[in-house]
Model the fold of this input.
Amino acid sequence: MAANSMTPRQAAVALVAAMPTGLSVQQLEEYGIEATAEQAQAIAREVLSLNLFWIFAAIEAHIPQKYQSALSEFILETVKAGWGTTIPIGSASWTAYLNDWQERRTRYSRLVEEGMSPLGVSAEASTLMEDNRLVTEAERRNLLTLLIDFVPVDTYGQLLENVG
Done:
């Protein structure tokens, strides 16, 4: 094993550590998005879903299949353990969130299979948030900028390049 390589478990820890969690009303305001505390939590859940989608895509792309399930479970257990504390998401239950996330994951996977770029997937997430009245049409461009900053797609792939 190379000196700078990581075990799959170390990679999972690094992925979770790289994932931004939570969004405050103040952070959203910095991006030109006005939101209530409840809207900020709902946006944070959507950002979490997008992050998890890309983390799992990176795992599928970089990790041997025999380790993928264990890594995925570790990541979900870590997020679940931080649910409502280190991951401030409001009143949504973990079970309800997982159901929503699976729907998002399926939708985003379909888009990627159709050849959509990460930016295009973020645009789709922005549209979903606008449709759910979390942001206004005028704020959607600002939200897209926020997603570029809060969903570090490239970081996830780079972290997993050193697994082995």
User: Anything to note?
Assistant: Residues 45 and 97 are 8 Å apart (CA to CA).
